[in-house]
Amino acid sequence: MTNKEPLTVIITGSTRGIGYAIAKMFASKGANLVINGRSSISTVLIEELTKLGATVLPITGDVQYSNEAESLIIQAKEKFKKVDVLVNNAGITRDNLLLRMTSEEFDETIAVNLKGTFNTMKIASKIMLKQKSGTIINIASVVGLVGNVGQANYAASKAGVIGLTKSAAKELASRGITVNAIAPGFIASEMTEKLNESIKKEAIKQIPLKRFGEAEEIAEAVWFLSQQSYITGQVLTIDGGMVMNG
Questions:
Q1: Which residues are catalytic?
Q2: More confidently predicted of 196 and 78
């Protein structure tokens, strides 16, 4: 980013896992970085991102609530005077078989994963429309493309994110704003570490590249999309070939 004004980047759910990997990627590029989580954000995490080259603004908030999502975006704008990139990564799982799934498990998953994405996009897009520029990148999932046993709520939320992405891309394109989604497959994380070895082996059998992805590989794709002005309305599937759409 030599001789360029730093990007202002907002990343929801950025205190661990994929979100934190994305934060580190933009930090290494010298971004003005707004990190977010539902609970307090550690000073160690902030220091690590600062050392990588970012100016960091930590904001605690739950994006499923419209007032907290709005506060996140507005604080970022007030601090850095613009919003260049919004990455919607905040998400939860509440897995259960359809017949056993409670209304609470369904509603909470939709609220965080889908409504939370809508809430931040709505506010950020107003700023981006005035700027006549901006990039929105939503983290979806291959589960939103093909479904998964025990994840009807999660699949529905991520399929909704994909539909939201494509609709927003059509609405905002005329003002120079791009909107894309990334659909990760199995990514090495705290969640996959907890799986027993037989389940891991079975999962890897479904992946032509025979391994789980790394969070850093998702982060590299987010950085790539943030630099493109002629890619919009797309879903980039990063899953080692597990889901191939012809």
A1: 154
A2: 78
Go through the domains of the chain in sequence order and give each one's CATH number: 8-186+216-237 (3.40.50.720)
Q: Report the pLDDT value the prediction gives residue 246, as an integer from 0 to 100.
A: 53
- Buried b / exposed e over 103-120, threshold 16 CB at 10 Å, is eebbebbbbbbbbbbbbb
Contact 162, 245 (CB under 8 A): no
Contact 33, 9 (CB under 8 A): yes
Residue 1 DSSP SS3: coil
CB 33 within 8 A of CB 54: yes
User: What strands, in cross-sheet order, belong to the sheet with 235-238?
Assistant: 55-60, 32-37, 8-11, 85-88, 134-139, 177-184, 235-238
pLDDT (tens digit, 9 = 90+) per residue, 208-239?
999 999 999 999 999 999 999 999 999 999 99
Q: What value does the mean pLDDT take over residues 166-178? A: 98
The residue among 57, 77, 187, 188 whose CA lies nearest residue 125 is 77
Distance CA 226, CA 228 (A): 6
89 phi, psi to nearest 5 deg: -115, -20
Residue 9 CA to residue 141 CA, distance in Å, equals 21
Using an 8 Å Cβ cutoff, are 120 and 86 in contact?
yes
The SS3 call for residue 36 is strand
